[in-house]
TrEMBL record:
This is Alkanesulfonate monooxygenase SsuD/methylene tetrahydromethanopterin reductase-like flavin-dependent oxidoreductase (Luciferase family). The keyword Oxidoreductase applies. GO terms for cellular component: cytosol. Keywords: Monooxygenase, Oxidoreductase. Pfam families: Bac_luciferase (PF00296). It comes from Nocardioides marinus. The keyword Oxidoreductase applies. Residues 10-258 form the Luciferase-like domain.
Length: 339
């Protein structure tokens, strides 16, 4: 199955001398450079994780706009933005601008969010969930965002505006046509995958699920994807949805690869706890290319998805991460039928 292949960067930085990204400036500029290099290698997407109160990427839209201005083909996106923190109207303006700058290449991954660096960090941003239900607040923010991205007018114009208005109710500007169909929900369970389908959002599934049924991670994730697609069909949406999965994949082709990831060649699924609940984590794929081709061919969720996001160790620098992407595109993608 032909696939779109992108990278997903968590954008870590630390002042440690062992890190290639030692400041926020470093990680922002290197993220742009990696997207440019990825496009030159034929990679299809440049995606960035968003975390607040952390030495990581936190404000995605300036970065996405900059990547859009420096590239011409590659999709640009997030994986994911925590909607508990977001003003959906302001977000719609920023997203519309970034999408227009990129020529309609924005693929916006959003979600309820993940464990935070601080206690209830969204409260510092001015958001107070009703009855303490922060997941419901994230979904309410998402509902507003999806509504305004349709481009329908909803705001009553002033009878004495500073500038002339078009007739009727006014919409958020700038509006980017088609962006509503390029919103993805980062679903951590099978049930949230079904909810995303009902809302008409694409499915973005990560390297962990916040549930465990005892089956291997890739089988549980494949079940999530199947349930998502059935719910999509039942909802009667007219377009074909997209599905992405994330994987940590490192072909061992030179001494650097063996030094960094050789010890992870025996990686296995893990079961742990997140936010007080059980979770299953997918393994890291590290090994000789021929072996990885066999292992990835047996990954049911990778087979089912149309988009594969490669998590990259951004602190190892642009050159090394470009090397990892090139190794996947050269040694794995053709052999697996992704190209």
């Amino acid at each position: 199955m032909t696939k779109k292949i992108g990278f997903l960067s968590f954008g870590h930085w630390t002042p440690s001398p062992h890190s290639a990204a030692r400041s926020a400036s470093d990680v922002l500029l290197q993220s742009i450079d990696l997207a440019v290099a990825a496009e030159e290698l034929g990679v299809d997407g440049a995606y960035f994780r968003v975390h607040h109160f952390a030495r990581q990427l936190a404000s995605p839209f300036p970065l996405l706009a900059a990547v859009g201005a420096r590239t011409s083909r590659i999709e640009i996106g997030t994986g994911v933005i925590d909607m508990r923190y977001e003003n959906p109207l302001y977000m719609a303006e920023d997203a519309g601008a970034a999408d227009l700058i990129s020529g309609g290449r924005l693929q916006l991954g959003i979600s309820r969010g993940s464990p935070e660096q601080v206690v209830d960090g969204y409260r510092y941003f001015g958001y107070e969930p009703v009855d303490g239900d922060h997941a419901a607040m994230a979904r309410q923010h998402t509902s507003v965002l999806l509504d305004v991205l349709t481009g329908k007018g909803f705001a009553e114009p002033s009878p004495r505006p500073m500038f002339p208005n078009p007739p009727g109710l006014l919409r958020i500007e700038p509006h980017s046509e088609g962006l509503r169909d390029r919103i993805w929900w980062g679903a951590g369970s099978r049930s949230t995958g079904e909810w995303a389908a009902e809302q008409g959002m694409n499915l973005m599934s990560s390297t962990l699920l916040t549930e465990d049924t005892g089956v291997p991670f890739h089988e549980l994730q494949a079940e999530q994807i199947e349930m998502f697609r059935k719910a999509w069909e039942a909802a009667g949406h007219q377009r074909t949805p997209r599905v992405s999965v994330s994987r940590s994949i490192f072909p061992l082709v030179d001494e650097r690869d063996h030094a960094y990831f050789g010890t992870q060649s025996q990686s296995r699924d893990q079961v742990g706890h997140i936010d007080g609940g059980i979770a299953r984590f997918g393994k890291t794929y590290a090994g000789e290319p021929d072996r990885l081709v066999e292992e990835l061919a047996a990954d049911e969720a990778v087979r089912a998805a149309d988009t594969l996001l490669l998590t990259v160790p951004n602190q190892l620098g642009v050159d090394y991460n470009a090397h990892v992407l090139e190794s996947v595109m050269t040694h794995l993608a053709p052999a697996l039928g992704w190209r």
